[in-house]
Amino acid sequence: MELPFAESYKIKMVEPIYKSTREQRKEWIKQANYNLFNLRSEQVFIDLLTDSGTGAMSQNQWAAIMTGDESYAGSSSYYHLKDAIKNILGFDYFLPTHQGRAAENVLFSVLVKEDDVVPGNSHFDTTKGHIEYRKASAVDCTIDEAFDTESLHPFKGNLDLNKLEAVYSTHPAEQIPMVIVTLTCNTSGGQPVSMQNLRDVHTLSKKYGIKVVFDSARFAENAWFIQQREDEYRNSTIKEIVAEMFSYADAMTMSSKKDGIVNIGGFIAMKDEELLKQASVFNIMFEGFNTYGGMAGRDMNALAVGLDEVTTGYYLENRIQQVAYLGNKLIEWGIPVQKPIGGHAVFVDAKKFLGHVPKEEYIAQTLAIELYLEAGVRGVEVGTLLADRDPKTRENRYPKLEMLRLAIPRRTYTNNHMDVVAVALKNIFDRREEIDHGYRIKKEAPIMRHFSVELEHAEKGRKK
Ligand SMILES: *Cc1c(COP(=O)(O)O)cnc(C)c1O
């Protein structure tokens, strides 16, 4: 028999998690105003809200924590991180920030102004937030296949070059501060961008004199998919692929909480010293002095080790295998998910799952609440709540896809936990017709409402 897959690590330290009853969960989710962000972690059994900062560090990362240098200026930890960014990603300059959105805030303070247009592949919510906050607009140029969950396109994160060129040719270059390529594309289901597409976006952008910026939170997972799915790269190492990927970028923002495999941190890296100088002004104001920028020295040390670990094939194989394990179980049972399975999460197609719940009642949120009630599993809505209102008309924006995202923390849960998640979804799928209402908004914030929105059962407000 062929030997089954098993992880290339064993567990040195364990953290308890808590089971609960359906009755308890019913009460807790009501108290949380049906917003899963408002639950306490002890009220959750398996937490798939996000893979951001929720992973387990390795023994080498913990060892690096102990040798962190907390000097305000010129810390050796800063130089360890600087070397890792240069050697692995190829950027000469970088600024540490406290997390990814802080990197966006600093970089966009330099680059984005009112009425600007920023094309990209389904911008991440904080990225879009930082663009719209500056009264500029984000234009989605993702390929159409990304919005068909059944399409087996291997690179659903790709940008459609025609859509991109349409933006470039209808706006003056001064109005387009950059194109943002998100690797992997979170919003479209953790879907990768091909090397060919990165190369083409770079060539087209240079023709029009536009900067290329990578939103790089899951760059290593993206490199894994290039190695697996793009023939030319089958025999390349992950580090070789990563180096070529970033050769097509002028700058990058990073949420180190993802593929840095640390619990907090971020950075901006760039090739142009002038951009570094301009961004430094904002970094010092918002984040901290340039050699720590909101990070402790020990965390920069752990991040330097994390960047090395995340770009090894053995780490990525473990990571992607676990996500695929959950995804394939759901596919086997006929549960509609974004295919092929992405790098960090399984995205359940809530419109197909709960087709009878009206879109005005937040279909994916309804499914997220059901999953919590069923098994104490916390996923997250990637749908109408997240899409927010149009900044001009204030109307709800109904995205093409309503997804329930199940993000898998790195090196944290076992496949037994994945089995619980899969069976819980199967149980809901089998009784889906009985779910006869969604939710309506009681209270919401003017921007990025999904974090704090308060909901109630829709039947209460439904017109008879
Ligand atoms: C998480 C993430 C961000 C924001 O990073 P934070 O560290 O959460 O502030 C930006 N872009 C992408 C693609 C992300 O996944």
UniProtKB/TrEMBL annotation:
Cofactor(s) required for function per UniProt: pyridoxal 5'-phosphate
Database matches in NCBIfam families: PRK13238.1
Protein name as catalogued: Tryptophanase
Record key words, sorted: Lyase, Pyridoxal phosphate
N6-(pyridoxal phosphate)lysine: residues carrying this PTM: 258
One Gene Ontology MF term: carbon-carbon lyase activity
Homology family: Belongs to the beta-eliminating lyase family.
Keyword Lyase carried by entry: yes
GO process annotations (BP): aromatic amino acid metabolic process
Domain of life, per lineage: Bacteria
InterPro entries in the record: ArAA_b-elim_lyase/Thr_aldolase (IPR001597), Beta-eliminating_lyase (IPR011166), PyrdxlP-dep_Trfase (IPR015424), PyrdxlP-dep_Trfase_major (IPR015421), PyrdxlP-dep_Trfase_small (IPR015422)
Organism: Draconibacterium sediminis
Any Pfam family matching the protein: Beta_elim_lyase
PANTHER family: BETA-ELIMINATING LYASE-LIKE PROTEIN-RELATED (PTHR32325), TRYPTOPHANASE (PTHR32325:SF4)
Annotated Aromatic amino acid beta-eliminating lyase/threonine aldolase domain residues: 47-423
